[in-house]
Amino acid sequence: MTNLRRSALLFLAIGLILYGAVYFGSERLVYRTGDSNPFYKIATTEDRAFDWVILGASHAMPLDFADFNAQMERETGLRILNLATPGTGPLYNRFVLERFFRRHRTRRVLYVLDSFAFYSTRWNEDRFADAKLLRRTPFDPALAWQLARYSLNDGVRATAVLDYIFGFSKINNRERFESDIWEGETTFDRVARLSAAADAKRIDYLYPDAVPDPAVFSRYLAVLETLIALAGQENAQVVAIKTPVPAQFYGKLPNEDAFNDAISDLLATENVAFHEFSREMDEPGFYFDTDHLNRAGLTAFFSRYLKAVLVGN
Amino acid sequence: MLFNSLGFFLFLPLVLAVRAALPPRRRWAWLLIASYGFYASFEPSGALYLAAVTLVIYGCGWGMERSPHRQVRVALLSAGLVIVLGLLVTFKFYDFVAGEIERAGAALLAADTTFRLPRLGVAAPVGFSFYAFSAASYLIDVYLGRLSAARHGGHVALYTAFFPKILAGPIERATTFLPQLGEGLRAHPEQIIAGAQLIGWGLFKKVVIADNLAPLVDRTFSIAAYATPIDLLVAVYFFAFQIYCDFSGYTDIAIGVSLLFGIKLMENFRRPYLARSTAEFWADRWHISLAHWFRDYLYFPLGGSRAGALRRYANLMTVFVISGLWHAGLGYGVGWTFMVWGALNGFYQWVRLATAPLRRWFTVRLPRLSASTLVYVLQVLVTFHLIAIAWIFFRAASVGDGVLILQKIAGSLAQLPSLLPRYPFTADHYLGFGLIAFLIFVEVLDEHRSIWKRLAAAPVVLRWSVYYAAIFAVLILGRWQMREFIYMQF
Question: How many folded domains does chain A comprise?
Fold first, then answer.
């Protein structure tokens, strides 16, 4: 072996040791700053059994903002774990639920539906590779294996698996010392001034494909079916809801009626209860931005509708 | 497949490994396949343009070599240049010029008369500005007899397509590139070490410095009318270092990767912000391969500095305005800003020429002062600020924006001492200033003695500590969100 090769190997070995140390430090920071990441919640919850697990995208997240989850638990006497993740569709939510069922149980799953999450790979396959999620997901070999399976079977990018295993997004996390709080939570008590321009911008963001591709929609409906089946295998009953949004925002959602029809048909076939609350609360004071309930809105929503769903089922 | 992407870090070892397994005389073919694969990863159709340009220069070069008739050789040279440079001009300016003609027409014609010119609507292949100039230099060198037309079509193809340099140079000459292909594409241990060092340093400059400065620059330049003078001042300084680190970072990686294949590309940057004059900046320190291209293929043929004083002034301005036009489209669209940028740099050269007697007088009368560190530092600072002012027009969305930025900064210079303490500097600002200070520190060291020689002479513990610090800075502080290199965007 030449001197150059020996030196290169030694350099590499020391580099790997240093990388391991940095990785270890970054992983510790994930636990120290963790908050809203679903896998962080699963890894750190002390309870094994729950009455409800909440899944969905950002519209489900306010249910866990500040002390609202604890408030719901107090008022219903139920144990609730919110595993919703912003901008995620059924594929990511099924991934989360699979992980949850490895060591935990729940009697029911509340799936907060959003049509945008069924129309684009951006909110499903692509979302797995988002550094913002990966950098807050604690390392677990079983989860790495599960992610690898999703890469093989469900089209998740291999880079997501590599990133997760090598912890690059955690090491490279620019917000490594900041708490993992979704930006919406910092404005939870705010009342938004509704704006048509802001609505249009938000709709463009949520629905990148102006015309939803029927094949893509069908695929994610099928994924939702497998999620329901997964819950069924674990003796958990799924309940689906749509949370309220301002009427002017709802009016701009593309193909929402068609989405409601399709999802209602599927859920009826699967024997899943579906509660459509989208148009139930139009008061502008109930939202902290274009379409998310603020504390007052959520309190009203809970007392008027959600509590009955949680307790009544 | 950008240099700062995971894909590239998987691609490069694969190409190197296969190269090592092949006999030396077959390696060029593998490198050519890899280069086309790399280039097609951006846009498959781009490979067709590349192949077409290669065929044109190979055919014209072959014809020029064999023809004893001057007229035929001139015709072949002209045909080759018109095709290659014509495509470049068309891609760059057709849609822009069509838009300007429509605007002018709308202003001149009656209000109810409108006309539309057809648009190309075709995005130019990435890196076209660079390989078109390489191709043109091949044709001219063959015509002038500086180079024998390559018999090996594969070598010519690799010259235009070589993946480390295709996106943003250096604009390598065939006279230095082609002879290296006959050496079996073998890298010596020193080349491997130097290559790895350059790749690491280039990545540091790109993902740690340039990409950490970019968000602040982008934000401020996008709202120039609403930004405060200090916002603008910071953005102007940051942009000067962003574009330097972005482009020279790319070049360092390109040169470093080439060394891993045993190919030495030309130096493209030599600590440009330590230049003592704008002439030195452009001639010897910034984008050297382009500066030399313009010198050899435009400035000298125009007569250079030997065709009388007036022609010299005119030649300088011509070169800088055309250089400005060449830069149009590099990251910030095509517009009049690049013309202004080029003309402003040409104007600097005029001023320098006009004041040459004064500077000579100063050097003769006050030799000790003119050679002092104080004057050196002043010259460097003045040169940097002149260049930074010109960069405003390079980066601004419009000439109006550029003028507005200058006016706002100039109008508040007197108030700066009182405004600065009250400015809400953020952690990102401090990081940016820290990185710039670090870069200047390294470059000043390098100016006196090569940083690589210093490292080679240092104890191994210190040397490796520097390497690890750089690598982990890239991993921990780098921005890896696939931000494109500014200069590769046309």
Answer: 1
The CATH number of the domain holding residue A194 is 3.40.50.1110
Angle between the N-to-C axes of helices A3-33 and B189-203, in degrees from 0 to 180, rounded to the nearest 10: 20
Cross-sheet strand order for the sheet of A49-56: A80-82, A49-56, A105-112, A237-242, A273-276
Question: Is A202 within a domain?
Answer: yes
Residue A88 is assigned to a structural domain of this protein: yes
CA-closest candidate to residue A174, choices A135, A209, A222 = A135
Nearest to A135 by CA among A166, A157, A111, A102: A166
Going by DSSP bridges, is the β-strand pair A105-112/A237-242 parallel, antiparallel, or unpaired?
parallel
Q: How many other CB atoms are found less than 10 A from the CB of residue B312?
A: 19
Complete DSSP assignment for B282-311 = IIIISSHHHHHHHIIIIITTTTTTSS-HHH
What is the pLDDT confidence band of residue B490, given thresholds at 50, 70 and 90? very low
Tell me, letter by letter, the H, E, C secondary structure of B45-105: CHHHHHHHHHHHHHHHHHHHHHCCCHHHHHHHHHHHHHHHHHHHHHHHHHHHHHHHHHHHH
The verdict on residue A80 lying in a domain is yes
Residue B380 makes CB contacts below 8 A (sequence gap 6+) with: B273, B274, B275, B276
Interface residues of chain B, partner chain A, Cβ below 8 Å: 6, 189, 192-193, 464, 467-468, 471-472, 475-476, 478-481
- Mean pLDDT across the stretch B204-210? 95
Q: Which of A172, A175, A177 to mutate to test the interface with B (most CBs of B within 10 A)?
A: A172
What's A311's DSSP letter?
A: H
A159 at B interface, C-beta within 8 A: yes
pLDDT of residue B309: 86
Per-residue pLDDT at B329 exceeds 70:
no
Distance in angstroms (rounded) separating the CA atoms of residues A265 and B23: 64
In angstroms, the CA A69 to CA A5 distance is 58
Percent of chain B with pLDDT strictly greater than 70:
96
Give chain B's mean pLDDT. 90
The Cα of B93 is separated from the nearest Cα of chain A by a number of Å equal to: 31
Nearest CA in chain B to A129: B481
| Alpha carbon B486 to chain centroid, angstroms | 9
Residues with Cβ < 8 Å from B472, sequence gap 6 or more?
A18, A22
Domain that holds residue A187: 39-133+180-312
Taking an 8 Å cut-off on Cβ atoms, the answer to whether B478 and A172 are in contact is: yes
Is B152 an annotated catalytic residue?
no
The Cα angle at residue A148 between residues A144 and A149, in degrees rounded to 5? 120
> How much is the average pLDDT of B441-450?
95
- pTM value is 0.86
Nearest CB neighbour to B468, from listed A4, A15, A171: A15
**What is the arithmetic mean of pLDDT over B188-205?**
93
Q: How many CB atoms lie within 10 A of CB A285?
A: 10
Report CB contact under 8 Å: A4, B189. Answer: yes
Q: Are A52 and A80 in contact (CB under 8 A)?
A: yes
Contact A159 B6 (CB under 8 A): yes
Residue A149: inside a domain: no
Neighbours of A293 (CB within 10 A): 26
